[in-house]
Amino acid sequence: MHIGLKIKQLRKLKLLTQAQLAEISGVSERTIRRLELTGVTESTTLKLVLTALGTNLEEFENMFKDETLTEESKEKHGHIRFLQKIENGRELTRILSNAHQLGYDYHDCNTQEQVELAQVFLTTVTDVMDIWEMMEIGQKFELENELSEQIKQLKQEGLWVFGDRIINKETQWVTAIVEIYSKNNPLIRNVKFDKNLLQKST
């Protein structure tokens, strides 16, 4: 396995999209895609990417055993942030509204139907984010219903939608994150929140 595929493994462990990694590292998304695909890049670029992933070349070379991340590395580099499971279009538009950019990815799509559903859904998401603030209330309801229906179709194919908003505290730049995972993906964790604690904090 070349270094690009290993970087892809670590990126996914950290729940980062290619666009997010590009933004954090200061290189283009196209460069990230090419690096993950071919394993070829300049040493300066590789250093920037590894730094963005919270590691260096020496540590990175020791992270993998039998071409997969060691449990120690997963423990150290995993669980950087959590994405919320999105159940309907209303929840999703709350993430998309007023966002400046979209980070997206889809994982575990093994059939042609899964790939097509994921691509149609993410295209709709992109369109919604672009025009949301220009729409009237009735049109927003229609789009929320359309998104809900597409989320339902994905779920029927064993795919779940997750999302989050990331706000840069210095610039107030908002990034909407939307990702699709198989319901059986080992990265998915069920977390139970204390409702009383949540009520106290609001």
Give a written overview of the molecule.
The strands form 2 sheets. A 4-stranded mixed sheet has the order 3-5-6-4, with helices on both faces. Strands 1-2 form a two-stranded antiparallel ribbon. Helix 1 (3-13) crosses helix 3 (29-38), helix 2 (18-25) packs across helix 3 (29-38) and helix 8 (112-131) runs antiparallel to helix 9 (137-156). The chain contains 10 helices and 6 strands. The chain has helices at residues 3-13, 18-25, 29-38, 43-52, 57-61, 71-77, 89-96, 112-131, 137-156, 195-201; strands at residues 64-65, 68-69, 84-86, 101-106, 159-167, 174-182. By secondary structure, the protein is α+β, with helices and mostly antiparallel strands.
Indicate the overall shape.
globular
Counting DSSP E segments of at least 2 residues, the number of strands comes to: 6
Helical stretch tally: 10
Stretches with pLDDT under 50, minimum 5 residues? 193-202
| H-E order | HHHHHEEHEHEHHEEH
- Into which percentage range does the β-strand content fall? 15-25%
Rg calc: 18 Å
Mean pLDDT: 84
Major sheet description: 4 strands, mixed
Q: Which class best fits the helix and strand makeup? A: alpha+beta
The order of strands across the largest sheet is 3-5-6-4
